[in-house]
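subagent[fold] <- orchestrator: predict structure for attached chain, return tokens only, no commentary.
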Amino acid sequence: MLPSDASNEPDAASRVHVLLPLPLAATYDYRVPASAALAAGDFVAVPLGRRLVPGVVWGLGPADPERPVAEAKLKDVAGRLPVPAMPAVTRRFLEWVANYNVTDPGSVLRMAMSVSSALEPPRLAIAYRLQGPPPARLTPARRRVLALLEDGPPRAAADLAEAAGVGTGVIRGLLAAGTLAEVLLPEQVQLPAPDWRLPGPELSETQDTAAAALRHTVAGGGYTTTLLDGVTGAGKTEVYFEAIAEALAQKRQVLVLLPEIALTSQWLARFEQRFGAPPIEWHSELRPSQRRRCWRAVAEGRAPVVVGARSALFLPFRDLGLIVVDEEHDGAFKQDDGVCYHARDMAVVRASLGGIPIVLVSATPSLESTVNVAGGRYAHLHLPSRAGGASLPEVTAVDMRKAGLRADAWLSPELTDAVTAALAAGEQALLFLNRRGYAPLTLCRACGHRLQCPNCTTWLVEHRFQDRLQCHHCGFAQRLPDTCPNCEAESRFAACGPGVERLLEETGRLFPEARAEIIASDTVRGPRAAAELIRRITEHEIDLVIGTQIVAKGHNFPMLTCVGVVDADLGLAGGDLRAAERTHQLLSQIAGRAGRALRPGRALLQTYMPEHPVIQALLSGDRDAFMARETEARRAQGMPPFGRLVAIIVSAPEEAQAADTARALARAAPRGAGIEVLGPAPAPLSLLRGRFRYRLLLKTARAANASELTRRWLGQVSPRGSVRIRADVDPYSFL
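subagent[fold] -> orchestrator:
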């Protein structure tokens, strides 16, 4: 059990309990040198074996009676690290996340200490300032650099090059010419401050009412959860910007979580236009120096607004006053590797522990959130119509059973005609298919052999434009072999099924004059490339967009009027309890890309099951009736959010090891009223990244403490060797 601290003030205690960012279930005790005074939350360096490691003082005082360590065996704390102490609310949050998600507190702490360099003393960095006259040869690139330095403070080379859109060679040239001079400055830089006083855009009456409610909630303080629910294009972002403005007026920090940080250039541009300065970004594409500066700015209270991916939730905010979770329904908020958690749900917990408001935003809210609204646990604000007079798109189904397509064609005549009409009118079209690459399967025509990943039970996806076959689970890649590895037949491979690359090939034949581009996670390399691609679409340098699910993330393209869903049935297969809900959400969001300005839009859904409830709900536009049916089906089955699920995944390099451990878990499974354990069984992905996998599923009543049941259950079985047991509380993936 972790000790709890009663005070955040320095203490004369001779012993401290330190939590380390390692997969550890408990703290370690250390002696406090006589010359030191430590408080709970202090970052410290402590010896562990022969090395020094960072940690956090989690408690003060005598030894834990359950794990007593003699005073003579204690090692000294090596020193306090020069960084602000971790706030008590952050420590409580990390403990809560670990307890609920049945994982080690040290593993959760590691997510909060992900930038080890941020714990080091501030460095002196080389920056550049104006010194001499401009060089004789003044190129446009050099002019941009000089303009930035003329109106601003000295800057580091990398930051200056990025802001001016030049290479660092331009800066070196200006230095050599004597125009610039080097100066040494502390690494801490003055961050741009968003100005809440700047006027926002004119809101509609409905928007203004919702914005006023959010401003009132933020001004009043205290914990509340509000679901901001509005149709696609309703202007939800501008509404919650008003809540951000109110939090900034109170000098509180704000966290905005987005599901796909790599494709948020439009959001960032709108924020800067509204507040006159950009927010601080937090995501995996940042350079190490940027992550260091962001982490320290958050810890020191110098980052007013942070926008980030799910891991931003674990930053050590000094005075967090508001959380916004945009696209709260999105599955990208669920982390399935390492520490399994759902960032939306953990964000609600963080707001509750901190006594602050949180706003969940979506055009297609999750069933969990709608049930919480119905139960009175969440407040609800609804925007029923699009902003600026735009209308919702007309949605129609294309019955592919009657389309009569050739074997090498994937676009029906009806969809082809709709795209042709849009392009002829000078508008844009979007074709959606949630499959990357050229084809999801490659087989030998001679013997039927399917090319499979050697590390995973999954087919290799052909990426023809890159001349490779790739596994989308472990990253294994190879070129298409000349002969079949099974029968040695030459040149007999066939690509089966379409991916976005195959659609691009087909549209090249159908619309040879159209400027087409693929948007997928493996073609958009980082935020800068994404921003350039979004700019090209917005400025109509692209006529036809072919994309996977990342095009559904809140983008606004005024000239895009036609959306075609190539395979509307793709997400409906399998036994996933959320399959229908997620397909409805995804297709609603995709259809909502059409007609977001004054030009009317239409969406066509190619389907072999036009009678399916999901397709019928999309055609009728009656989201609430669909969600009501889903709610009652879940309630009748005792499934989330009316029951609890915990998935147990056992993995090992040898199948027998995984199977034996899974059977041992089944024998030790909890019993009792309202408790059901399913399995063990090989996982659908029975081999993943070279490890064999078995699954068990714990199902309990809603009132049961599923986390504690799971913790006691797993405590009865000790995995041997390289066997791993992982708990996934509230699973979203059943692979």
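orchestrator: received. Logging for downstream: The radius of gyration is 28 Å. The first strand starts at residue 15 and ends at 19.
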